[in-house]
Design goal:
The chain has about 270 residues and is of the alpha/beta class. The protein is about 50% helix and about 10% strand. Strands 1-5-3-4-2 form a 5-stranded mixed sheet. It has a two-stranded parallel sheet with strand order 6-7.
């Protein structure tokens, strides 16, 4: 079950609650400690929790209000907090509720939203994760070789066709040409390569192998640097300008009649 069933208000001891980090952001311990020093029960408000059942201990998963709970726990684990209890939720349902509540109450980072949607079983993110894994890549915010951090670009690319072929072709070309280094998996690079493929893949003169050869003429960092220098003279997002850089490299070795029309880039 993914929707809350008959939520009700109750007073629950802090010790009976816990945080499920499957979908929750990491608790900021210093923030909770600061809150506990000046603890005012009147300002605690109402937390949202999910009842995991009598056979689970701690019983209540905190959906919204983990820092208030953490602060109260530091003051007194037996302290009762007013909570809105949601019943019959799966972990995926809790994650969806967490995302829904936080969208309305505070500004989440893109990674917060991605984590919550992933835990909620979002089918689009599941497919993107699968495509990344197929190319030995991991979608993770840490700056590390093999990690894809450009989640906004990944979803934009996936939405272009909705079946993942464009995203898979893009990652395949990048990995085969530039490897899995941090620079080659940067958002404007990934999106720029996808723009080129998406724009010309139906053209009979387009050759993805030749695009790979053109990409080998520069490093990812050089292609981004050249794109940034175009901003002084040309309009477009950095991803579009990266695409222009790659098309110009492609056209340098193309025979007359085989050159790509840069004006149709989108």
């Amino acid at each position: 079950m993914t929707e809350p069933s008959n939520p009700y208000i109750a007073a629950v001891p802090a010790r009976l609650m816990f945080v499920d980090e499957t979908y929750q952001r990491p608790c900021q311990k210093l923030r909770a400690k600061d809150m506990s020093r000046d603890w005012n029960p009147a300002l605690a408000g109402v937390l949202d929790v999910s009842d995991r059942g009598e056979d689970v201990m701690p019983r209540y998963a905190i959906v919204n209000g983990q820092h208030r709970w953490a602060a109260a726990s530091l003051v007194d684990p037996e302290m009762h907090l007013v909570v809105n209890v949601h019943r019959g939720l799966t972990v995926a349902g809790e994650a969806k509720l967490f995302d829904d509540i936080d969208r309305k109450t505070k500004s989440l980072t893109n990674w917060d939203r991605w984590k919550a949607r992933r835990a909620a079983g979002d089918p689009t993110l599941a497919k993107i994760d699968e495509i990344a894994a197929r190319h030995n890549l991991v979608i993770d915010p840490n700056a590390k070789t093999g990690n894809l951090r450009c989640i906004t670009a990944l979803e934009v690319i996936f939405d272009k066709d909705g079946d993942g072929h464009l995203l898979s072709d893009t990652l395949s070309l990048i990995v085969d040409t530039w490897g899995v280094h941090i620079d080659s998996l940067e958002g404007s690079i990934v999106h720029g390569v996808a723009i080129v493929i998406d724009t010309y893949q139906v053209s009979p003169i387009f050759n993805s192998g030749r695009l790979g050869d053109a990409m080998e003429e520069v490093t990812p960092r050089q292609s981004k640097s050249q794109a940034q220098s175009l901003r002084e003279f040309e309009k477009g997002t950095l991803a579009v300008l990266v695409a222009k850089v790659l098309v110009r490299l492609y056209n340098k070795t193309a025979r007359p009649g085989q050159k790509l029309d840069e004006q149709v880039l989108r």
